[in-house]
Write a structure and sequence with these properties.
The structure holds 2 protein chains of 2 kinds. By secondary structure, chain A is α/β, with parallel strands linked by helices. Helix content of chain A is 40%, strand content 18%. Chain A has 2 domains: 18-172, 3-Layer(aba) Sandwich (Rossmann fold), CATH 3.40.50.970; 194-324, Rossmann fold (3-Layer(aba) Sandwich). Chain A has helices at residues 18-29, 44-47, 50-55, 67-79, 90-95, 97-106, 134-139, 152-164, 210-222, 241-251, 266-275, 297-304, 308-324, and strands at 36-40, 60-62, 83-89, 112-116, 145-147, 169-172, 194-197, 202-206, 228-232, 235-237, 254-261, 282-287. In chain A, the strands form 2 sheets. Chain A has a 7-stranded mixed beta sheet, with helices on both faces. In chain A, helix 11 links the parallel strand 11 and strand 12 (282-287). In chain A, helix 1 (18-29) crosses helix 8 (152-164), helix 4 packs parallel to helix 6 (97-106) and helix 9 (210-222) packs across helix 13 (308-324). Chain A starts with 17 loop residues before the first helix and ends with a helix. In chain B, strand 4 (221-226), helix 9 (230-242) and strand 5 form a beta-alpha-beta unit. Chain B has a single domain, classed as Rossmann fold (3-Layer(aba) Sandwich). By secondary structure, chain B is α/β, with parallel strands linked by helices. The interface between A and B is medium-sized, with 31 and 33 residues.
């Protein structure tokens, strides 16, 4: 068995970060979507919104370090016919969950919330800055779509998709440089998961930075003659129930992987989806109901058990349960 | 059974040549009756804060804002946001009086299946601009509207009515700083300064004074006046309208429970209360309703 330290790391080694990919895509889409305005809380340099600020300064709205006001004001901007894109760190979106609930979702506003710096991927800033609860919080808001793309290509496609979509969306980007996983022919559709590696023994369902780690885990498992299917579940809500059902029926075991608390995020969504129709043995890879800490993202992934080796280990566990069931 | 108490057209039965102030005064009285009756029928609701802002709302809808029942989706309309959403019965009553909704239906407050929820919801009623009820948020939404209207070069104005206790929410001061920074002179905040909040006097819960100085320090134009003097309300709104480069705040000194003597200045009537029939009838009588009108307001089938 490969140890965590030996596991090949694709995270943080090359490529654009998801936040930069988002910012560039937003800027390039701005002329096509003239109603888009971008809201910032003095953090545009970190969220990717600086690209839009430079290209479309007249549609870039500065709110200062005051996220609650910014989030609710997005509701007002939408009410008068604009399409606000709220940008800040995921942890500060948590600060304004109630504003997103009442003034955006309850009002049915066509506003987009794009959160950079989610999860342990934040790295050195430490536990206070690492939002591990955001997908759970936003997923619980009625009518809120929740998305977490996996690479720069998908982030750019998802940026277009959320602007084309009519309704409130919460989308995670990411801080760290990201490995490019998909080609130029990649497609993205809200609510659709994708099988990105075929397999027959079990399915690893992942989102965000964990998709890359899930592929690494599948490689590790292949060395043991375990055939792991990998699903990129970029939409956490509404989760792709049809695909999950297929995976449950065809592979008979599922591991979920997310840079988020094990409660309420992707794992919860997948379990809720399958429990009522076609349950199978499941294991959850995520941060185990604790807070993060300072460190490099890959070091933290190992420490908190969300790296490829831990996904592979969870896969072995779920296979044992599958065989004994 | 169309009576004065529930009439939907402001023109019905009006004598000619009455002054605007007299018309508004009559309207505000009927608005108060409607609000009290709906709260009695609901079995819960916040009468104190609804009565303290009835005059302000009546002037806004009756004389100030550029909005019409036939064009509630006109992009150039003025916007009103009831940031103190718990005063919904007063908003519904004013809307009913000026023809934005059915007056009888609006008595069906806080009931299953009714669009007249305990706090206003934008999806339920065409004249509600945003859903409120969580204090502070409506003000930020109004700011977003004002910002967006300016971006689109529209001349519409945005009015937000805030409670005094609401000013204890930090979000209010985030919005205040932001509106001044962006020079949103199309935004007008109105503080229903009745000095009481849910549990006690503002002073005892969390002191607001010096309130005007706070707003001035945030670079707002501040206008203080008697929030039950219709002429003063009108003139304050006109002054706000003429203010350029800065947002305006109207600090309206009001009386909680205004118009119903046993409620005036008594904190108990802020909270969500269950009015007895006797209390409701006494309140309506104090507001000049005849016995017949009282019976209709309390008993007419409004479902």
């Amino acid at each position: 068995m490969s140890t965590a330290a030996e596991a090949p790391s694709l995270i943080g080694t090359s490529g654009d970060s998801l936040r930069e990919a988002f910012g560039k895509a937003l800027s390039s889409l701005a002329d096509e979507f003239p109603k888009v305005v971008v809201l910032d809380a003095d953090i545009a340099g970190g969220t990717g919104a600086h690209h839009f600020r430079k290209s479309h300064p007249g549609r870039f709205l500065q709110f200062g370090i005051a996220e609650q006001n910014m989030m609710a004001a997005a509701g007002g901007l939408s009410a008068v016919g604009l399409m606000p894109v709220v940008t800040t760190f995921a942890v500060f979106c948590l600060r304004a969950v109630e504003q997103a609930r009442l003034s955006i979702a309850y009002c049915g506003r066509n506003a987009k919330i794009v959160a950079s710096h989610p999860g342990l991927d934040v790295g050195p800033d430490g536990g206070s800055a690492q939002a591990l609860e955001d997908m759970a919080a936003f997923r619980a808001i009625p009518g809120m779509t929740v998305i977490s793309p996996a690479d720069p290509i998908e982030t750019a496609l998802a940026t277009r998709a959320i602007l084309e979509f009519d309704g409130p969306v919460y989308m995670r980007t990411g801080r760290s440089p990201s490995k490019r996983l998909f080609g130029d022919d990649h497609t993205f559709e809200i609510g659709k998961g994708q099988i990105i590696r075929e397999g027959t023994d079990l399915t690893i369902v992942a989102c965000g930075v964990e998709v890359c780690r899930a592929l690494e885990a599948a490689e590790l498992l292949a060395e043991e003659n375990v055939s792991a299917r990998v699903v990129n579940m970029a939409t956490i809500k509404p989760v792709d129930h049809t695909l999950l059902q297929e995976c449950s029926e065809e592979t008979g075991a599922i591991v979920t992987a997310e840079d988020h608390n094990i409660y309420g995020g992707l794992g919860g969504a997948v379990a809720e989806s399958l429990a009522q129709s076609c349950p199978c043995p499941m294991e959850f890879v995520g941060v185990r109901d604790t807070f993060g800490a300072s460190g490099e993202p890959q070091e933290l992934a190992i420490l908190f058990g969300i790296d490829a080796a831990h996904i592979a280990e969870a896969s072995r566990r779920v296979l044992k349960r599958k065989k004994s069931s | 059974m169309a009576t004065v108490a529930l009439r939907e057209q402001p023109g019905d039965g009006w004598k000619p040549a009455r002054s605007l102030t007299e018309q508004l005064s009559e309207a505000a009285k009927l608005v108060r009756r409607h609000a009290v009756a709906s709260i009695y029928r609901a079995g819960s609701g916040h009468p104190g804060g609804a009565l303290s802002c009835s005059d302000i709302l009546t002037v806004l809808y009756g004389a100030e804002m550029n909005i019409w029942p036939s064009a509630t989706d006109d992009p150039d309309r003025d916007r009103f946001v009831l940031s103190k959403g718990h005063a919904a019965p007063a908003l519904y009553a004013v809307a009913a009086y000026y023809g934005f909704c059915n007056a009888r239906a609006a008595l069906n407050l806080r009931k299953i299946g009714s669009p007249f929820q305990g706090h206003p919801h934008v999806a339920d009623l065409s004249f509600v601009e945003t859903s409120t009820g969580s204090l502070g948020q409506g003000f930020s939404v109004a700011l977003g509207m004002a910002m967006g209207l300016k971006l689109q070069r529209r001349v519409s104005r945005v009015y937000a009515l805030l409670g005094d206790g609401e000013l204890q929410e930090g979000e209010v001061w985030e919005a205040a700083m932001c509106a001044a920074h962006h020079r949103l002179d199309n935004l007008c905040a109105i503080v229903d300064y009745n000095k009481l909040q849910s549990d006690d006097r503002n002073d005892a819960i969390m002191r607001l004074e010096p309130l005007a100085a706070k707003w001035r320090a945030f670079d707002w134009a501040v206008i203080e006046f008697d929030g039950h003097d219709l002429d003063q309300i009108l003139s304050a709104l006109r002054r706000a309208c003429a203010t350029v480069n800065r947002p305006s705040v109207l600090i309206a000194h009001t009386v909680k429970g205004k118009g119903v003597p046993y409620m005036e200045n008594v904190p108990h009537w802020h909270g969500s209360v269950r009015l007895t029939r006797e209390q409701a009838a006494e309140a309506l009588a104090a507001l000049g309703a005849t016995r017949e009108e009282i019976t209709e307001l309390l008993d007419v089938d409004c479902r």
